[in-house]
Design brief:
By secondary structure, the chain is α+β, with helices and mostly antiparallel strands. It has 2 domains: about 100 residues, SH3 type barrels (Roll); about 120 residues, Beta Barrel (L,D-transpeptidase catalytic domain-like). The protein contains 2 helices and 19 strands. Pathway: Cell wall biogenesis; peptidoglycan biosynthesis.
């Protein structure tokens, strides 16, 4: 028992001595550094990641509001775009042969100044109606604060509109016309619905290539149109002087004829003729503002061909 106690006490004392000396040295070292002003080494810090949520300075990344070109005031005496050929000076449509669907249109709610470029010159006013027909123009391009639309009463021209004075409408349909195969195809939501054989413009009065749109509809003025309403398009003859005198100033039309015999031929004054049943179908389904694209031939025939 006594031997066990002495052994235990001796072992405990030896253990304290062994541990105590290093502890005292460490304590003395820390006290000495504190007194001499030398900081104790800090634990290694974890790597930090920059806070990417901090907003960039305005000068490095200008806000959209700062980059909007201002719209110059439009003089009150600017011409208003009507059924007559549009004023000159508007830019060419940069994607006139583009067959991708145009899915939105602009409907003016008041007279809107039309410019030749974002922040450019105002050249005309676009009114809510033309000849009493409500106007919807397909949107072809957008930039901050500005919207480009196909210009009525002109071929392959666009107009730039500042914000305000118009609203957007959805456009589901598209009409593609191929001159060489004399084919018209109606698309909805990007899918071909139906195709028809058509007659097109004769040599010297060819149906104009490029993008245009359905401007409105009108009753047939004569019995030769087969008693079915006519779609007036936003395009006009490329050479107005080449058409007969009685058609001077007229727009290119999409309409039927009293006979289907000329279908598939170049016999019109630039208009697009299809069957009476096909015209009735389009009149019932396709609204004004729908884009119409005339090309020579599609790379791949539509599934409905």
């Amino acid at each position: 028992m006594l031997f066990d106690r002495l052994t235990s006490r001796w072992a405990l004392g030896w253990l304290l001595a062994v541990l105590g000396v290093p502890l005292l040295l460490v304590a003395a070292l820390l006290v000495g550094r504190a007194m001499t002003g030398t900081p104790a080494p800090a634990p290694a810090a974890a790597a930090t990641v920059p806070d990417l949520t901090v907003p960039a300075s305005p000068s490095a990344s200008p806000s959209p509001q700062q980059s909007v070109p201002a719209a110059a005031p439009a003089p009150d005496d600017l011409p208003v775009v009507t059924y007559d050929p549009a004023p000159r000076g508007f830019p060419a449509d940069p994607g006139t042969g583009d067959t991708r669907p145009l899915t939105e249109g602009v409907t003016p709610t008041r007279d809107v100044a039309a410019y030749d470029a974002p922040g450019g010159r105002p050249l005309a006013f676009l009114a809510p109606t033309i000849s009493g027909v409500k106007v919807t123009m397909p949107i072809v391009e957008r930039r901050v604060g500005w919207t480009a639309v196909l210009l009525p009463s002109a071929n392959r021209r666009i107009a730039w509109l500042p914000a305000g004075g118009w609203r957007t409408v959805a456009l589901r349909d598209q009409i593609l016309v191929e001159r060489k195969p004399h084919r018209l195809t109606w698309y909805r939501d990007g899918r071909a619905v139906q195709s028809w054989k058509v007659s097109l413009g004769m040599p010297g009065q060819s149906t104009p290539l490029g993008r245009t749109f359905i401007l409105g509809r009108t009753p047939p003025p004569q019995s030769v149109y087969g008693g079915v309403d006519i779609f007036a398009l936003g395009s006009v003859p490329d050479d107005p002087d080449a058409v007969p005198t009685g058609l001077r100033g007229a727009h290119i039309g999409l309409h039927s004829w009293y006979t289907d015999a000329p279908l598939g031929k170049d016999v019109t004054n630039g208009c697009i003729r299809l069957t009476r049943s096909g015209q009735r179908k389009l009149l019932a389904e396709v609204p004004p503002g729908t884009s119409v694209v005339v090309v020579d031939r599609l790379p791949t025939p539509p599934a409905t061909a």
